[in-house]
């Protein structure tokens, strides 16, 4: 048990003050999502790993946990992509180039990259789940020779809701990326796959001993994707999931993000499936 | 341009509207944000369009229905103000009796001259965007909503019971003083105004989502009131919300 | 350990004396039948015999509502709030309360150590006092005796209406310096103060009970009675969950960010922006509260995160008793074990 006598005064931190970052670029990329490129005050880098998140703060409105969407190998700036679903995110859509946004973090545990080097990476992204996974994808692409295959499964509700369309085209064009996109409901111009994301899994030819899966999507998606991967015989410890919870403080205090006894903001948001399997509240 | 704001009253005591006239210190700040275009208690301008229409009172006659539809058509945002507008409030107690009996009691022999309907929440007739609860609504609650609309953020929803604010104030629980209080299932946001001065909560801000009504009746009856009395207390402000 | 005798009538003089070190906070009467920790204005108003305060002493280190910063909307900038370090004496504190502060230290200082809490805890001195357990106290069952002195600088043990003062630390010694109304004496053992309420198992057996209790029917029984007011967690001395909100002035130019105590027993606690609620049902919340007290942190730290103060039970409008829930789980566990053994 931590005792107060064991804490030096310099170790006690001001945990709740944001760093003011400048919006370098902003773009509405779908009806619901806006993308931002942010710059830290002295141009230093955020120092995040793929899968980590920050608390985004607008005075008068509040804070919300948002996944970092850019690869850590980009220096000086970092990117967020924010869906307008809550009060803060609705206000943030009015932020443009030159505005300042408060940031705390990065927080939590992202993907354990040291365990991913040399592996085939299977990305399973549902909807806005592509945002945090984009950080991992771009990191893999930036260090392409360090990894095996890169397989990306991406599902959205409709073609209009597909994120990062230019990047999807780039990935599609590359020989070293296997991209499979599906939508729940197509429109008249849609010629691709139709159906939920799990329909993309049975047809995959995976090397079971070297494949690592990274899953992010709406809460309802996880169980089904894990089931599909298990029916492909992918071992549990090669599955990583990024979970969404109400990570209000980001520093393991406020209690809102707890999954049974685990603080999602501390042990997650990226978990190995083996670690959350025993947690009844996880999936 | 500042948003054009109007206030309308339906079946109510107009106490919520009067409450706004008492803003005094804050009035000038409020008028920095909005233009007041219709407010019967203070002025009589008429406008074709309202950015925000504030509605007080319940909808309880055919002419009210017509008028609220007309206002809704002319308004971008519509806000229900006070218990009567939000869920029918005390007016809705009449809904517990057959409508003919109510008309007879109120109008006697002239009852056929006055068309009447059950007292309804504004939201059961037209779309309501936001609400300010309470009987009367508090100034602070109204201002929070107004500022939220000005800043473009979602106004607070108050998903926690009155008890939370009582505890944060370190009030002695009225149950420990031998009183029966509706605080546990009543939507907070009033800073526990009544319990803080020793008056039990009557539920004027409406009930929480999915309240444990059976549990609450058990709590009330185990603290010395009859089941009948407990139900009456629960219905006082919530006849339209509770089926007992 | 030094020990002195002190007449009950001289306690106000002791309070005045330790006031030379800093502001004294002590239990006072509140309302009809309640107590609260307040700053001492007149040492004669301090209550020496009390069952429990409405809010725990925690309120002075992790305030119910606390301003985190002032901000300007126009400039998109903020001003930090400086927490001053002030010497303070907490007088008349019960053993379970002191134990709750030690647990709170762990919660607020392990992992990321929070400066606001840390600063409020600096230069604080604690003077304990014995108490007579009422029908709600059960701290003995979680390993905390009336005379548990860990964390205190001085401790007042009531003996035949007067007090024995134990000097436990150098800080305690310093507080007493120059106080002449006491006489050196030998510590006596007081035996008649018995706990009326008990959990049937020793606390080190509880994590095992909880390991199998997750799908117990007990949770549904509790949820049926619980009205969801949050009183249990909001008055709990070891709970530390909070929410953060921004308040803006009417002119919409400035405002402040503040945090306030929150409770996992409230329906909205685990809701995310998209509307998904990860603990939607009352049974999930009831269970979570108890697991926070007897399993999750306990597995890591080896101690129950409940100190047996009885607040959650005494202040529950539905009369739900935490030790009764635990005893019900124990009973169910015994039945299950019996059935398992019969089957074998």
Structure characterization notes:
The complex is a heterotrimer of chains A (283), B (244) and C (344). Chain A has helices at 87-92, 113-116, 130-142, 165-173, 221-231, 264-267, 273-276, and strands at residues 12-13, 19-28, 33-39, 53-58, 62-67, 77-83, 100-107, 120-126, 150-156, 178-183, 193-194, 211-216, 239-242, 258-259, 262-263, 270-272. With 283 residues, chain A is an alpha/beta fold. Chain B folds into 2 domains: 4-151, 3-Layer(aba) Sandwich (Rossmann fold); 162-235, no CATH class. Chain B is built from 10 helices and 5 strands; from the N terminus they run βααββαβααβααααα. Chain B has helices at residues 15-21, 27-33, 62-73, 82-87, 99-107, 139-151, 162-168, 193-196, 213-222, 227-235, and strands at residues 4-9, 35-39, 50-56, 75-81, 130-132. Chain B has a 5-stranded parallel beta sheet with strand order 2-1-3-4-5, sandwiched between helices. With 344 residues, chain C is of the alpha+beta class. Chain C has 11 helices and 13 strands. Chain C has helices at 11-18, 95-109, 115-121, 170-176, 206-211, 218-225, 231-234, 282-294, 296-301, 311-314, 322-343; strands spanning 2-6, 23-30, 34-39, 65-72, 77-80, 88-93, 113-114, 124-129, 154-159, 162-167, 183-184, 242-248, 254-261. In chain C, strands 3-2-6-8-9-10-1-11 form an 8-stranded mixed beta sheet. Chain C has a 4-stranded antiparallel beta sheet with strand order 5-4-13-12, with no helix packed on it. Chains in contact: A-B, A-C, B-C. The interface between A and C is large, with 48 and 63 residues.
Sheet with most strands of chain B: 5 strands, parallel
Into how many domains do the coordinates of chain A divide?
Answer: 2
Query: Stretches of chain B where pLDDT falls below 50 for ≥5 residues?
Result: none
SSE string of chain B, helices as H and strands as E: EHHEEHEHHEHHHHH
Summarize the structure.
Chain B has 244 residues and is of the alpha/beta class.
Helices and strands, with pairings:
The complex is a heterotrimer of chains A (283), B (244) and C (344).
Chain A: E1 12-13, E2 19-28, E3 33-39, E4 53-58, E5 62-67, E6 77-83, H1 87-92, E7 100-107, H2 113-116, E8 120-126, H3 130-142, E9 150-156, H4 165-173, E10 178-183, E11 193-194, E12 211-216, H5 221-231, E13 239-242, E14 258-259, E15 262-263, H6 264-267, E16 270-272, H7 273-276
Chain B: E1 4-9, H1 15-21, H2 27-33, E2 35-39, E3 50-56, H3 62-73, E4 75-81, H4 82-87, H5 99-107, E5 130-132, H6 139-151, H7 162-168, H8 193-196, H9 213-222, H10 227-235
Parallel strand pairs in B: 1-2, 1-3, 3-4, 4-5
Chain C: E1 2-6, H1 11-18, E2 23-30, E3 34-39, E4 65-72, E5 77-80, E6 88-93, H2 95-109, E7 113-114, H3 115-121, E8 124-129, E9 154-159, E10 162-167, H4 170-176, E11 183-184, H5 206-211, H6 218-225, H7 231-234, E12 242-248, E13 254-261, H8 282-294, H9 296-301, H10 311-314, H11 322-343
Parallel strand pairs in C: 2-6, 6-8, 8-9
Antiparallel strand pairs in C: 1-10, 1-11, 2-3, 4-5, 4-13, 9-10, 12-13
Helix pairs in contact in C: 6-8
């Amino acid at each position: 048990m931590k005792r107060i006598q064991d804490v030096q005064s310099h170790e006690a931190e001001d945990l709740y003050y944001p760093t003011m970052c400048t919006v370098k670029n902003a773009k509405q990329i779908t009806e619901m999502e806006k993308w931002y490129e942010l710059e830290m005050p002295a141009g230093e880098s955020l120092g995040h790993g793929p899968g980590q998140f920050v608390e985004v703060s607008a005075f008068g409105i509040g804070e919300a946990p948002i996944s970092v969407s850019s690869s850590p190998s980009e220096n000086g700036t970092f990117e967020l992509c924010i869906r307008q679903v809550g009060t803060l995110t609705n206000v943030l859509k009015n932020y443009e180039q030159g505005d300042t946004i408060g940031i705390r973090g990065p927080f939590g545990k992202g993907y354990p990259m040291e365990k991913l080097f040399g592996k085939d990476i299977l990305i399973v992204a549902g909807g806005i789940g592509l945002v945090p996974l984009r950080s991992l994808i771009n990191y893999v692409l930036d260090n392409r020779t360090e990894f095996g295959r890169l397989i990306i499964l991406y599902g959205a509700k409709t073609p209009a809701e597909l994120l990062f369309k230019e990047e999807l085209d780039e990935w599609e064009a590359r020989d070293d990326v296997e991209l499979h996109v599906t939508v729940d409901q197509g429109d008249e111009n849609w010629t691709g796959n139709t159906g939920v994301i799990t329909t993309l899994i049975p047809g995959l030819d995976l090397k079971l001993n070297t494949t690592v899966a990274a899953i992010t999507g709406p809460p309802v998606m996880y169980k089904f994707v894990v089931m599909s991967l298990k029916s492909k015989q992918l071992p549990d410890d090669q599955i990583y999931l990024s979970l969404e919870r109400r990570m209000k403080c980001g520093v393991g205090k406020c209690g809102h993000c707890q999954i049974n006894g685990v603080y999602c903001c501390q042990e997650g948001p990226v978990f190995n499936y083996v670690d959350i399997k025993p947690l009844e509240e996880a999936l | 341009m500042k948003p054009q704001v109007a206030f309308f009253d339906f079946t109510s005591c107009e106490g919520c509207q009067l409450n706004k006239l008492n803003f005094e210190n804050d009035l000038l700040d409020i008028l920095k944000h909005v233009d007041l275009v219709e407010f019967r208690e203070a002025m009589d301008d008429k406008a074709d369009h309202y950015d925000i229409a504030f509605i007080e009172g319940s909808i309880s006659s055919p002419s009210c229905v017509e008028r609220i539809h007309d206002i809704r058509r002319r308004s971008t945002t519509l806000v229900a103000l006070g218990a009567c507008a939000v869920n029918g409030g005390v007016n809705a107690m009449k809904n517990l009796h057959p409508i003919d009996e109510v008309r007879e009691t109120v109008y006697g022999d002239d009852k056929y001259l006055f068309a009447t309907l059950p007292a309804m929440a504004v939201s059961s007739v037209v779309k309501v965007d936001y609400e300010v609860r309470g009987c009367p609504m508090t100034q602070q609650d109204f201002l929070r909503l107004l500022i939220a609309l000005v800043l473009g953020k979602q106004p607070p929803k108050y998903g926690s019971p009155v008890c939370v604010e009582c505890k944060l104030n370190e009030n002695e629980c009225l149950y420990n003083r031998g009183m029966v209080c509706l605080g546990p299932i009543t939507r907070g946001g009033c800073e526990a105004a009544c319990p803080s001065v020793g008056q039990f909560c009557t539920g004027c801000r409406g009930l929480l989502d999915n309240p444990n009504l059976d549990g609450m009746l058990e709590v009330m009856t185990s603290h010395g009131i009859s089941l009948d009395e407990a139900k009456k207390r629960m219905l006082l402000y919530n006849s339209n919300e509770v089926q007992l | 350990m030094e020990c002195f005798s002190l007449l009950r009538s001289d306690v106000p003089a002791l309070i005045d004396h330790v006031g030379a070190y800093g502001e004294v906070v002590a239990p006072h009467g509140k309302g009809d039948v309640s107590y609260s920790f307040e700053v001492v204005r007149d040492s004669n108003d301090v209550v020496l015999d009390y069952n429990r305060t409405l809010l725990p002493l925690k309120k002075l280190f992790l305030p119910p509502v606390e301003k985190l910063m002032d901000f300007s909307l126009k400039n998109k900038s903020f001003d930090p709030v400086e927490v001053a370090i002030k010497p303070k004496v907490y007088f008349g504190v019960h053993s379970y309360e002191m134990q709750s502060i030690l647990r709170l230290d762990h919660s607020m200082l392990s992992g990321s150590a929070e400066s606001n809490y840390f600063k409020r805890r600096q230069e604080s001195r604690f003077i304990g006092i014995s108490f007579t357990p009422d029908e709600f106290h059960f701290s003995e069952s979680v390993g905390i005796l009336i005379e548990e002195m860990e964390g205190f600088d001085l401790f007042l043990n009531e003996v035949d209406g007067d007090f024995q003062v134990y000097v436990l630390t150098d800080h305690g010694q310093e507080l007493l310096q120059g106080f002449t109304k006491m006489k050196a004496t030998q510590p006596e053992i007081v035996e008649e103060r018995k706990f009326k309420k008990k959990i049937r198992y020793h606390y080190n057996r509880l994590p095992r009970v909880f390991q199998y209790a997750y799908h117990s029917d007990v949770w549904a029984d509790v949820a049926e009675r619980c009205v969801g007011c949050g009183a249990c967690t909001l008055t709990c001395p070891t709970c530390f969950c909070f929410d953060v909100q921004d308040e803006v002035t009417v002119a919409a130019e400035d405002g402040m960010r503040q945090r306030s105590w929150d409770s996992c027993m409230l329906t909205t606690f685990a809701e995310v922006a998209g509307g998904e609620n990860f603990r939607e049902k009352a049974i999930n919340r009831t269970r979570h509260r108890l697991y926070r007290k007897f399993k999750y942190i306990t597995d890591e730290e080896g101690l129950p995160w409940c100190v047996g103060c009885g607040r959650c039970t005494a202040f529950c409008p539905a009369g739900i008793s935490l030790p009764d829930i635990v005893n019900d789980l124990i009973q169910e566990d015994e039945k299950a074990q019996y059935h398992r053994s019969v089957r074998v």
